[in-house]
């Protein structure tokens, strides 16, 4: 009992002690990976468990924020220990790994699409099947995919992450100079993006589904928190006023989302608020979404202390394991979502099969996370003894 | 501390269960509630909430009240027809169903296909079409081409906003029809931004939105049609269009409050 009281008195966030894992980060990144996977499958009963049904933000915000946090934590320390050049080299190696993962996923996607294009004939969808026309010019399409400009649906997060990581050396260098100024610059870029409509073009038309100019704010904010910002905010975070503002905002957002699911309620929404609020812009990280994520995060760090005993419980172990190997598990999730679509297309099944596929996917993700962690800790132990110190992306939460 | 956390967790769980419960009740409460008066060849009921709109069709209501002919113009892309079988597509079925519901009024319907054109490209022709046909009601099916070409959703919204305004200025009622639910291409075509923007424009201009996407998804989920499977010929397309046409006729009748007008 005394221990809990002490935990309550301590600041809501503290810097992780060197070498000690911040399990909450792993936990929530694992959760984000599960939710992203479920959101990528056709809607089923499990979709009701994903947070986007209860507020403005969704798992992508969690994922990008935690990625910024852990990347800054790992490579920030590397920059301190071994200098800018070596740390940058390590970051670039990580970027390369993510890029290769993305290209690998694209190959699988291409295989699936080509199959669908040749086997699917349904007069109901002659118009929609026109989307396959890109297969007629693979020379252009594949080059555009390698340039990250052609990205099928559900494959937008990794390109965003690649771009953000590419700029991590600059971000960290600025952060070590003046962290608050860096965050202010990031917010300025976000504001300029909204004011002047900055974007990256995609192929064949349109823009990136996650605009890096806007989403960098979450990433930099994560980095800022990791490099001491969170500790400095702890007074704000533990004030009851913040608590009530966050709580009120989350409840309001919940009621707004409720009107999307229960159209009968939509007449309760004042038109003026609707006109001001909609559409909630996901590509450019709408302020409403960002604020919703902040409120969620503030309540989470407040009510889930870092030494919460549940973090060590075997029940949360699968989630934490997934969060600890997030690049691999993320890619696996995207692949499983493709595979799930494919199975559903070949076997016509009802809601039960949909739910079963989601659950199987999550079990496979957990199994894979366990195998990877076994490799790291047992199978590769002898081989990697020499290089296991410093800059290891999986220390303290991994880097993606 | 711990009890507070437990309380918060409990509350959240309760709230989410309640939400899921409400949504579920909606799904399950509807079947049987409203079987269409005509004998339905396929079981394709549409839950009432998918056909409810606050917006009305004053021009249609007026025409019916004064027993003037009802002229409908359908502007759409390729999903508004079935290749080689236009008489089985939803516009023809809509006309047939309306004739049945409004036996005393002539119902003229014409279809203007704008294949492969984005909303912005259709905009250019809209007013010309309306001047040529003089319709009471324009049913504008759009969004699919824009989604396939990943047109900037803001530009898309601007285009339908302009189009609807022009139609209203030309003195016709408008119904917007959104894209089909197409599970097979869901990994390639991202419909949600276009669906959202159509909803926004419909709300701003106070025009009814026929939510074809949600209706077809409901049929797929409820097992009326298997829209995912590959092994269907033209028969599935015909049955789906038949159901869409009848749902759309009910939508027109309801949003123009024609049942009441007929009784008077």
- % residues in beta strands of chain B: 5-15%
Q: What share of the residues of chain A lie within helices?
A: 55-70%
Give me the CATH architecture of chain B, please: 3-Layer(aba) Sandwich
Which spans of chain B of ≥5 residues are poorly predicted at pLDDT below 50? 1-40
Nearest-angstrom radius of gyration of chain B? 20 Å
Which structural category do the helix and sheet elements of chain A fall into? mainly alpha
Strand content of chain A: under 5%
Q: Based on CA inertia axes, which overall geometry of chain A fits?
A: globular
Description:
The complex is a heterodimer of chains A (400) and B (264). Chain A has one domain (2-379). The radius of gyration of chain A is 22 Å and the shape is globular. The longest helix of chain A is centred in the N-terminal third of the chain and has 36 residues, at 84-119. In chain A, helix 8 packs across helix 9 (212-238) and helix 13 (317-324) packs across helix 15. Chain A is mainly α and 400 residues long. Chain A is 66% helix and 0% strand. Chain A has helices at residues 2-9, 23-40, 59-82, 84-119, 138-146, 157-166, 168-177, 179-196, 212-238, 240-261, 271-277, 287-303, 317-324, 326-346, 351-379. Chain A contains 15 helices and no strands. Chain B has 264 residues and is of the alpha/beta class. Chain B has one domain (44-263): Rossmann fold (3-Layer(aba) Sandwich), CATH 3.40.50.1110. Chain B is 52% helix and 10% strand. Chain B is built from ten helices and five strands; from the N terminus they run H-H-E-H-E-H-E-H-H-E-H-E-H-H-H. Chain B has helices at residues 2-29, 58-65, 90-101, 119-133, 144-148, 153-169, 192-205, 212-222, 234-255, 258-263; strands spanning 70-76, 107-113, 137-141, 173-177, 209-210. Chain B has a five-stranded parallel beta sheet with strand order 2-1-3-4-5, sandwiched between helices. Chain B is globular. Chain B starts with a helix and ends with a helix. Residues 1-40 of chain B have low confidence and may be disordered. The chains are: A mainly alpha (400), B alpha/beta (264). At the A-B interface, helix 1, helix 4, helix 10, helix 11 and helix 14 of A face helix 1, helix 5, helix 7 and helix 9 of B.
């Amino acid at each position: 009992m005394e221990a809990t009281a002490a935990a309550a008195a301590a600041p809501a966030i503290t810097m992780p002690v060197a070498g000690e894992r911040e399990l909450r980060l792993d936990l929530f990144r694992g959760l984000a990976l599960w939710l992203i996977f479920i959101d990528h499958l056709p809607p089923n009963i499990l979709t009701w468990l994903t947070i986007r049904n209860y507020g403005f933000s969704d798992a992508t915000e969690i994922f990008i924020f935690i990625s910024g946090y852990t990347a800054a934590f790992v490579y920030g320390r590397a920059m301190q220990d071994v200098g800018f050049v070596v740390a940058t080299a390590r970051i670039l190696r990580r970027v390369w790994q993510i890029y290769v993962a993305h290209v690998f996923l694209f190959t699988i996607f291409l295989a699936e699409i080509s199959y669908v294009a040749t086997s699917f004939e349904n007069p109901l969808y002659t118009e929609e099947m026109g989307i396959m026309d890109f297969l007629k010019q693979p020379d252009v399409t594949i080059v555009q995919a390698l340039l990250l400009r052609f990205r099928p649906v559900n494959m937008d997060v990794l390109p965003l992450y690649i771009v953000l990581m590419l700029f991590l050396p600059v971000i960290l260098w600025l952060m070590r100079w003046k962290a608050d100024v860096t965050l202010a610059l990031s917010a300025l870029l976000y504001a300029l993006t909204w004011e002047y409509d900055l974007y990256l073009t995609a192929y064949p038309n349109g823009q990136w589904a996650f605009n890096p100019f806007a989403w960098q704010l979450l990433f930099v904010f994560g980095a800022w928190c990791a490099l001491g910002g969170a500790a400095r905010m702890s007074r704000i975070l533990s004030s009851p006023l913040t608590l009530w503002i966050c709580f009120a905002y989350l409840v309001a957002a919940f009621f707004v989302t409720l009107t999307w699911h229960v159209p009968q309620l939509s007449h309760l929404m004042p038109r003026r608020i609707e006109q001001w609020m909609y559409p909630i812009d996901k590509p450019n990280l709408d302020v409403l979404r960002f604020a919703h994520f902040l409120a969620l995060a503030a309540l989470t760090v407040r009510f889930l202390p870092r030494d919460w005993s549940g973090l060590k419980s075997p029940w949360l172990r699968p989630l934490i394991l997934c969060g600890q190997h997030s690049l691999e598990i993320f890619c696996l999730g995207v692949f499983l979502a493709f595979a799930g679509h494919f199975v559903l297309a070949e076997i016509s099944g009802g809601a039960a099969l949909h739910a079963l596929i989601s659950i199987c996917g999550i079990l496979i993700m957990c199994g894979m996370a366990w195998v990877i962690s076994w490799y790291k800790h047992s199978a590769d132990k002898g081989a990697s003894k020499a290089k296991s110190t410093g800059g290891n992306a999986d220390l303290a939460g991994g880097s993606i | 501390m711990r009890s507070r956390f437990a309380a918060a967790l409990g509350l959240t769980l309760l709230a989410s269960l309640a939400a899921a419960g409400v949504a579920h009740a909606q799904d399950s409460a509807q079947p049987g509630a409203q079987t269409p008066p005509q004998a339905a060849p396929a079981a394709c009921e549409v839950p009432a909430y998918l056909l409810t709109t606050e917006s009305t069709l004053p021009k249609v209501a007026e025409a019916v009240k004064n027993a003037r002919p009802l002229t409908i113009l359908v502007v759409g892309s390729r999903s508004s027809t079935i290749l080689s079988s236009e008489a089985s597509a939803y516009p023809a079925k809509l006309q047939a169903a309306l004739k049945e519901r409004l036996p005393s009024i002539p119902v003229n319907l014409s279809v203007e296909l704008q294949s492969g054109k984005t909303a912005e490209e259709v905009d250019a022709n809209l007013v010309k079409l309306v001047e040529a046909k003089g319709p009471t009601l324009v049913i504008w099916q759009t969004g699919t081409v824009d989604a396939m070409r990943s047109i900037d959703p803001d530009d898309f919204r601007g285009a339908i906003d302009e189009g609807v305004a022009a139609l209203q200025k030309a003195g016709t009622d408008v119904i917007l029809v959104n894209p089909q639910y197409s599970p097979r291409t869901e990994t390639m075509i991202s419909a949600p931004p276009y669906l959202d923007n159509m909803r926004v424009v419909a709300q701003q201009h106070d025009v009814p939105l026929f939510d074809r996407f949600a209706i077809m998804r409901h049929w797929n989920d409820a097992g009326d049609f298997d829209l995912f499977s590959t092994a269907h010929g033209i028969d599935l397309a015909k049955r789906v269009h038949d159901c869409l046409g009848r749902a759309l006729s009910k939508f027109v009748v309801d949003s123009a409050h024609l049942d009441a007008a007929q009784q008077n």
